[in-house]
Amino acid sequence: MTTTMRSICIVAAALALSACGLFGNDDEKELEPTKLTDIKTTLQIKKLWSTKVGADSEFLRIALRPIGDGNRIYAASRDGNVVALNPDSGTEFWRRKLDIELSSGPGVGEGLVVVGAADGDLIALSADSGDELWRVNVGGESLATPTIKDDLVVAITIDNRLRALSAFDGSERWIVEQSTPRLTMRGSASPVLAGTSVIAGFDNGRLLAVNLSTGDVQWETVLSPPTGRSDLERLADIDGMISVVGPDVYASGYQGNIAAIASESGQILWSRDVSSFEGVSADWNNVYTVDGEGAVIALTRRSGDEAWRQNSLLRREPTLPIAFRTTVVVGDLEGYLHFFSNFDGDPVARVKVGGQAISNEPIVVADRLYVQSDAGTVSAFVVQEPKRARNAPDISDEGA
């Protein structure tokens, strides 16, 4: 299915879902984003720096988000810029203009920075210098960050094909294909690694574990069985983030379930009736998601029981919650970052990043939070520790 047709399908689906709100002021008011109210700030967030990467990408739902490798932060923009940034200051180590419209990435690993283009190109750059190493057309747009491991680059395209390419020259090593439903949402889940397997989700609601070296399918689980008579009712895409913690995989499907799956066998350990297009993030205690209405939800990782639910961002198009220190962080359509306690979901801080939306979830590298807004700007934040009063006793010395 072409990008244009996928976009048409999404518009048609949105019109069908909102048709009841096209008439009547009361319905229109109900569909407005929830207005923000004052909160008690108990956590001080400090912006370290902000850097313009390139042109904006508002409303395009493309998968451009920063990533780190321990030494640098890498980011890309819709209009073809790829940059390597100093994580302390935001200054550029290098910048490359690729003269092509980008739709995903960057993925980083094994000395490579890989981005995906709207025309189906995958482009590999040197992580050290930004020099282009190879460029290969994979026949379809990628809306998911490529995954790099050992000598392979793994990418999924919107035509439901998972490919492994040689990290050396981009030649194809293996390919796994799944059927594509007549109607799908615009997006793809980024492949993730679990041991020697790569885990990938598809638009038909299936989650696969594929041997990274050979491309053999090791198990297949129907995460979101399509139901209903119409194509709209049968939407079951797995397009959001897939998370791996220890031996367990966590994933969600649109109009389906959130589930915990054993990474070795594909057995579903628990499943909950929560529909999420954004996917699932996780820490050692909870898994986090946002449902179709914008409720931020925490489930206990071991059992799937609901730990808390935060409804202050309904219809504000919140991003997937990401664990950061003692909080989870969510971006929204007005460019705010919201910080909620990971214990009970209470708001603890709010920061305005800019005037445009934050469509992709923030990322955490070491003790810092990085976010890319639809304006094409990358910003870095830290938790500002309270200053100790002058001449205050050192707690560690008490009782000495």
Structure in a nutshell:
The chain has 400 residues and is mainly beta.
- First and last CA, distance: 71 Å
Which CATH-level-2 architecture of the largest domain?
7 Propeller
Might you state the CATH topology name of the largest domain?
Answer: Methylamine Dehydrogenase, Chain H
Q: What's the structural domain tally?
A: 4
| Percent of residues in helices | under 10%
Record field, number of beta strands: 33
* Proportion of strand residues: 35-45%
How confident overall, as mean pLDDT? 86
CATH class of the largest domain: Mainly Beta
Radius of gyration: 21 Å
Q: Helix segment count?
A: 2
> Which class best fits the helix and strand makeup?
mainly beta
Gross geometry: globular
Identify low-pLDDT runs: 1-24, 395-400
CATH homologous superfamily heading of the largest domain: YVTN repeat-like/Quinoprotein amine dehydrogenase
Summarize the main sheet.
Answer: 5 strands, mixed
Largest sheet: spatial strand order: 2-7-8-9-10
Write up what this structure looks like.
This protein has 400 residues and is mostly beta strands. It has four domains: 1-32; 38-60 and 282-385, Methylamine Dehydrogenase, Chain H, CATH 2.130.10; 62-186, Lipocalin; 190-278, Lipocalin (Beta Barrel), CATH 2.40.128. It is built from two helices and 33 strands. The protein has helices at 3-18, 25-30; strands at 45-52, 63-64, 67-68, 73-76, 81-85, 92-97, 102-109, 112-117, 121-126, 132-137, 147-149, 152-157, 161-166, 172-177, 192-194, 197-201, 206-211, 217-222, 243-245, 248-252, 258-262, 268-272, 281-282, 286-290, 296-300, 306-310, 322-324, 327-331, 336-341, 347-352, 363-365, 368-372, 377-383. The chain has a five-stranded mixed sheet with strand order 2-7-8-9-10, with no helix packed on it. Strands 1-33-32-31 form a four-stranded antiparallel sheet, with no helix packed on it. A four-stranded antiparallel sheet has the order 3-4-5-6, with no helix packed on it. A hairpin with a 2-residue loop joins strand 7 and strand 8 (112-117). The radius of gyration is 21 Å and the shape is globular.
